[in-house]
Amino acid sequence: MKVLLSIKPEFAEKIFDGSKRYEFRKSIFKNSSVDIIVVYASAPVQQVIGEFDVEDILVENPSELWHKTKEHSGITKDFFDQYFKVKDKGYAIKISKTRRYKSPLNLKDHFGINFPPQSFLYLQ
Q1: Cβ(91)–Cβ(80) under 8 Å?
Q2: Is the N or C terminus of the chain more exposed, i.e. has fewer CB atoms within 10 Å?
Q3: pTM of the entire structure?
Q4: Regarding predicted confidence, which is higher, 74 or 32?
Q5: Are 96 and 104 in contact (CB under 8 A)?
Q6: Residues with Cβ < 8 Å from 48, sequence gap 6 or more?
Q7: Which of 123, 71, 52, 63 is nearest to 89 (CA)?
Q8: Which domain holds residue 107?
Q9: Domain CATH number, residue 44
């Protein structure tokens, strides 16, 4: 099953250049059969630029999550701490194989979606 995720362009780029191997989330999808993440690069790009396979999803308290992922987080400790501030649990989607599209896709034209998801959206 595929899920569409909105990701800031700077982090989306790091996913596809291989320097970011974890995508962090405050909440996660309930469906455990999600195995592909479709990447929507948010403003100013506002295009679907590729996808990646989900290798695993880590669920930990933020300090343990950082300890396990910091080498390949693609973000600073300060950014991580700010993102998970006041959270007792965090999620890290471990990125496996990435596929960058030759040409970016438009949400409306290719997916029939008018607005990008705030967090995530299941795709058919």
Answers
A1: no
A2: C
A3: 0.94
A4: 74
A5: no
A6: 4, 38, 39, 40, 41, 101, 104, 105, 106, 107, 110, 111
A7: 63
A8: 2-123
A9: 2.30.130.30
